Amino acid sequence: MLCVFCTTLGVMRMVATGWLGLGVVLIAATVPGLWFVRLILRDLRGSALIAVVIVGFQWLSGRLDLGLAVAGTLLACVAAAMMLSRTTSPADLLDVLDRWLGRIGLPARPRRRLSLAIALTLRFIPALSARAALLSEAHRARSPRRVGWRLVGPLALGTLDEADTAAEALRARAFLE
Description:
- The chain contains eight helices and no strands.
- With 177 residues, it is mainly alpha-helical.
């Protein structure tokens, strides 16, 4: 459903569609409680910064409508992925993806690789948000200056290190060659 939701928003490319999608996701997030909505909104802070940059660039390019459409779609898809990763265990996600890909006729080995890649990608989003929050907190403890772009370098290096560690673990367990 996440794939269909995000693909539909991406194909429609209308300003209201992405923002409506974000509204639907946030309304759905109220089912567990308002604490869950606050959690999703906190997870969206980094993506919101990227959305603002996209809107600003498109505004300068004379395509504000495109910038708003892309920003709304980005935020809606990231929020939906956050909800999925916060409510579904990686093991359950792997099982569902493996069964679904098996139904469409994909052989077992590529099916397992693809489902693992998708599950790791979706699980990586909250981990990246947590790393950004930790770096931001560490910066605030050491400096009175605003964090801003100072986190980009350490966040990128930490992300690459975490990806390398995950790849090594997968190689050790014979998931990758």
